[in-house]
């Protein structure tokens, strides 16, 4: 295999490895990876011999991923709880309150703490236990991101697998599996443990596996068993297999495996190629037989829980770093710069993806070579995201701590000054405790400080966190997950909030980064139109054309589908001139034939399933290709089988109407697609010996290579291309060339030579391809529709009205990206476009010269120049009035340089000034980088939405990650915070749920802050009149139940039910969302306002109650004592604080009344009972209620206390209304429950009002070329026996139908 | 959607549009709770509400205030400060030494009754700078011990007044009891003494439940230092009302405690002679001592605070409601939005429609002054609210996206929505003419 290459890299990255690992094993590590230090010693496994393995006591195959089990639940759960500062603080306070210096009974602090802990623990237990119904596939994915659930484990552990026992396959659960067992895994099954691959039903001992669970890639990879073990396929044969495996100890390195198979007295080296890892699944293979090597938690999927070091990551953030890297390594300097970058990107991506530390991007200084990229596969905790609001809340809590400190300090100083022997009645002379000893005032002050901390501990709202958690939990599980507006019936997918941490963040999003494919578009490529020999076929009208026509007031009549129309995935074409063999009657029937053959032959599609036109499915790297092959099938050229050298096509109606013949074309060479070539060619030999080169690709590259002549056709075809492009279609040009055997032979020699070269192989291959891809004859062009998702343009329109900026980050071509941006209303003709592209002649010229360093410098300069120019222009437009909206289009290569620290600021400035930004040809890492750029650089709340593995990094880098669910592929969803089925559900998610959550959480926090501060301040004022002794004003139980009973429930009700305007109005006035973006409800100003009212109210409570009690309080002349007065004050506090809550409500349901009334009632019930039981407050409430004073005060104090708030609220609404308040007033006469009607109305309102033009000319000149597929080249080459270095894991590449991982993997 | 009702009625049987009811449908079930459509009232604090609330407060509070004030003014109160007067002039340089000495502390003061006082007249003593609410003091008592004789030795909280040297527990123990006030007063008018009834001065609950029937004082004030009054060891605690009053600790360092009742009327201008035994030491901490004679009314003793507070709040409310009403009519919502401003006949509205449809405004609102300013780079779309014949133009702002986010401009012109009430066509023209709305 790739011994030489491996050496080169291996010696750099793992210098000590080879010498230590015994016999030289050709293990193929991914470059730049450092393997985890190995556990000493080897592992010897006796296959198929349980007894022999017994002494070693390998671990079983059952796994447990739950956070807790029965025994660990309590200690572990408690530990988790006390990791929170607030809980820790209260634990400390509780301990402190048990000491004599405490003014309060320990119960004051222990009771709330216990209640809070209890609630949290119940919630934890519930979540751990929670049962999510999903397939095994998803469970394994869950495993990958550590969604730990007890019941999920049960499913995984009890899945059945065939194990060889007594020459029979016996189904046993996974957990019963032991090291050394021989197992059989059937097609589409998952590997239950790490297996040694022995035999496969495929003739050549290969099998195809999908590693999506490990690395998120959905392409197929090939594993090949050792030739010696190929035969052990049947149970009878397999039972005879007695091998001994000596291998390394379990480790986390995904891409390495060293070991030997000692078998029939021979030592056979094992490589990763023979290892099938747990969690992967078998594809395209009937079944395989393997021996278990690692089980359970020793499998590579599960091997370790924690990253080796959390500091150990570096994203390839800056270019300077890459250059240093180059300097360090002579060998690498000759590697293509771009390639290098991509690799760095790849690794860095892995870091981001797995360590989830992308947000830390800026503080990175760790040597690059020590990245354990294998961390990737670990089932490790992605650190959960915290919302910005919560981080601000931390600051608020800190401020409260500051307040607490100040209050205690004042009290402490006061107590030091106050304490004096002259107060003889305090008994301060004989043997007084240190806390009251006037002899040492300093000690008195110090101890009083602690006393007061205990006394004022209520200023920190203990139940705040748990309340917020509960609110958010209900918000996400009951409201978001169950919203019918976000339920997608077609895919039967409701929305899913995977984390409840970020609900309110949804209300503050300012930037949305969207993937294109699968998110904005359906990734449903449909063959829509074609142009053959200068004639356009196909009668459909695209969405974009419809939209344009609508805006121009033209009504397009939907054509009735004719009888010939075929409805199939990937084929939405109807033209009676071509269908059912009718093409034979066309004047250009020969061209048609070539056209269809080109479609059927020139591709890298793999057929799957039954070889009949109805049942076959095509696997391809890009859905475009599948669509083209499907089209060929429908035109009568049915491609049904691919072998290593042949393509079999069932052609009908070619020679004669109605005649069917199977033709096998020999594929001689595949000149694969890449981004520079932008074309793909196949050299094939007809059964009759005719040698043809079929080529398809971008119009620009094809036109350059056409033979001269036939200009008419070229011109007509180009016109058609432009027409297609303007309709938003993706186009390809098809061409062919007949080859003479001599030409071919001489070329093929060069090709093989190039293929086997070690350095610059790609360049050489490209050069060789140039030699034969010339003098082509144009056949025609195809147009594929990339269907937009439902409601996308309207959604984007709404979002932009809400002040949210949508950026599209796509791996697609610039043209495609711009097309889609037009279709989605992101760009229109009124906008000024800035395009920064690397596809300029100047750059190409330098690139052709091939000096990497020069290229890098040149592009960087170029990008800098362009950025500067654009920025100047942008500023010019901004200051000119009324300027056009601006938009920026940039490609990945330029972006790479623009993200350099020196240019980053400029890039940020420019892009923030643009209404929309489109980045095309970007790698997954760049998506993450752009996201971080805005997140870090502009400090705005970002949201990323995507559907595929390539969006994972972006999803994790943003504040909020959203995955599109409902279709296959779980990577994005698994990495996301919220999963929705359709892009346009963003409207509901952000404008309704986000806006409400934000509002609610803000209110809840502010209210908590207020009620605790108010309560504590009354204590504080009392302290001044007790000689700073720290005497408590309230009874212990009043204080301990204040937070958890008397004021707990109403605020939760507000957190659940409050809404400023109804859902339909939120969507009708998206502008309201801007209040969230501006953070209007949780500014420091808001907090300060609340604090002022707290101070005011606490003064009212304290002084009104105290002052009015100075004389006898009823006609009996008896005086009230301290506890009477404090009970009085507490009653006022409870009533006022609960009423104040009603004042902040925008909508009041009966739950509000019940909870507010209930809380006040609860207080009275409590005190009625309690005052009978307790000594110090004995009978106080009855004493109080026997006086007029009580009723007069209870009426007066709350009203006076709320007076200020009321005036404030009235004036605020009257003179400085929030936008939402204005909307409330406009619609206040409308019925409340108008959601259904309203949303329809909102929907109809969404129609864009701007007079949009059809696509502009300059864009239509973009002919919409969009096609890219990673090559199959090495796969075919390998099959042909051509020496080609390949990577163990990346031989065959099957694209998922949804995601196109843009991580370049080819060497 | 219409399917909401459908699914709720047939029990989540799948939506109407999907046709085939799926057994494993993940369609959430409809409920008012999960769809957040619970019926709710939406209180909106409109100017009218503000004004009427203030009015209501005024209407309720002013009479209460007056009643309270009258109630309080009915009370006749005579206060006499005596802590200095009752020290012989010679001893005034060292009052503490005097009070701690065995000298005769009898002292006579006289009080003039300003107004006829009806019986019962309550006699209070008032101490100042006496921290009955000090933490050390408050907890220095044993409620258990006070309640039952069996808990006599429950004196852990009472230090340092817990155990008399070698003679067992002190009952009642603790600093509070120890420092029991011990000045005594006897009243006479025209050489005819007035009896002071010292019964019924404690709260009934104290008497019945908190102080035990068969708990008798023991070892009280028997220690080295005598802190205050002594108690008759033959009277059970539940009849020692002075102690009960004293032990209901006051909330503030200045407090009054009931001493007794004089159950005869006192006439105006009468001079009452008080012979008092000035035993209690407030001189160490410069505390004042006052003797108070007071009648009561329904509201209790003399305390204008509540009445004044009610009256003030009522007045302020009234003033505010008047003020807001004036603002409401004179300057209705600063020309932004006036819900009932019906100066524009409907015909005008409709005649305005074509005009409004055909112009495009360019304006902005300055969020600090809340005034229309022209800013050319803002685009607005217009929505006519045609309900209620109110001529109202709703101006929807779209902040111009090309403005650099995060620059001053956006913060400055942060408001995105504004409602302007236009009185008529002329008004619109006026706005246009005066340049407040620019036509582009």
Automatic annotation (TrEMBL), chain A:
Record localization: Endomembrane system; Membrane
Active-site residue numbers: 515
Segments for region (Disordered): 1-26
Keywords for the protein's UniProt record, in alphabetical order: ATP-binding, Magnesium, Membrane, Metal-binding, Nucleotide-binding, Translocase, Transmembrane, Transmembrane helix, Transport
Positions bound to Mg(2+): 515, 517, 947, 951
Pfam families: Cation_ATPase, PhoLip_ATPase_C, PhoLip_ATPase_N
Catalysed conversion reaction: ATP + H2O + phospholipidSide 1 = ADP + phosphate + phospholipidSide 2
Amino acids binding ATP: 515-517, 625, 673, 696, 730, 810-812, 921, 927, 950-951
Principal location: membrane
GO molecular function, one term: ATP binding
Signal peptide boundaries: none
Transmembrane stretches, start-end: 396-419, 442-466, 1004-1022, 1042-1061, 1082-1105, 1125-1144, 1151-1173, 1179-1203
Domain P-type ATPase N-terminal, chain residue ranges per copy: 45-109
Cofactor: Mg(2+)
GO cellular component: endoplasmic reticulum; Golgi membrane; plasma membrane; trans-Golgi network
Enzyme Commission code(s) on record: 7.6.2.1
Membrane topology (UniProt): Multi-pass membrane protein
Boundaries of every P-type ATPase C-terminal domain copy: 973-1217
A GO BP annotation: Golgi vesicle budding
Family, per entry: Belongs to the cation transport ATPase (P-type) (TC 3.A.3) family. Type IV subfamily.
Protein name as annotated: Phospholipid-transporting ATPase
Protein's organism: Salix brachista
Phylogenetic classification of the source organism: Eukaryota, Viridiplantae, Streptophyta, Embryophyta, Tracheophyta
Automatic annotation (TrEMBL), chain B:
Entry's localization field: Membrane
Chief location: membrane
Protein known as: ALA-interacting subunit
Organism: Salix brachista
Region entry Disordered, spans: 1-29, 142-161
Keywords: Membrane, Transmembrane, Transmembrane helix
GO cellular component: endoplasmic reticulum; Golgi apparatus; plasma membrane
Source taxon at top rank: Eukaryota
Keyword set includes Zinc-finger: no
